[in-house]
Amino acid sequence: MPAGGSYEGIARPRGRGRRRGFKPGAAADGDMHRFEDMTVGFSETYGDHEMTEAGIIAFAEQFDPQPMHTDPEAAAETGYGGLIASGLHTVGVATRLMVEHFLNDSSNRGGLGIDDLTWHRPVRPGDVLRVRHEVVDRRESGSHPDAGIVVRDVEVLADDGDGEAVVCSWTVAILMGKREP
C-alpha cells in the first residue's frame, strides 16, 4: 500500500463496456466466455477509469518512484512537461478493466505470455482510460485437451477531452477452458 496505508485518491473503474461479435446465448453456462466463443475478430471495448494526479503519485511512490511520476513540479521540467503515469500503472489499470469486464466472466485459466508491449504516448491526470481487445488467433492446446489458446491484441485508449488515442498496446495469449473437451 502507499504511504499512509490506503489507496485513497486512486480512482476506481466505472461504467460497463460494449461487445462486438459476441453472440447472446453463445455461452450457455451463465454467459461465461469459453474457448468456443472466441472467434477471430471477436472484439470488446470497455472501461472507463479516470487517471487522477493523486492516483498517479500514489502508485508511483510505491512502484515506480521517478520524478516524472511523483513530483508535478519536477515533472514540469522534464521533456514530458508535466506529471505522467508510470507505464506499469497504465498496464495495471488496463488489467483491472480486463479482469472486471472479461476475464472474470470467462473460462480463463491464466496468461501464457505477452508480446510487443508498447507505450505510444504518456498518460496524464484527467485522461480517461478504456480497453479494446480483439481475438487475432485461436488454436487447440497440444497439452490441455480441455482447453484452447486465444491470442488477443489489446489497446489501452485514453480520452484527454480532445479525443481518444491509443496510449499502450500489446498482444497476449491466454489458455481458456472449452465448453466440452
From TrEMBL:
SUPFAM superfamilies in the cross-refs: Thioesterase/thiol ester dehydrase-isomerase
Basic residues compositional bias, start-end: 13-22
CDD domains: YdeM
Domain of life: Archaea
Residue ranges of domain MaoC-like in the record: 49-141
InterPro entries named in the record: HotDog_dom_sf (IPR029069), MaoC-like_dom (IPR002539), MCH/BMMD (IPR052342)
Region annotation (Disordered) ranges: 1-30
Designated name of the protein: Acyl dehydratase
Record organism: Haloglomus irregulare
Taxonomic lineage from the root: Archaea, Methanobacteriati, Methanobacteriota, Stenosarchaea group, Halobacteria
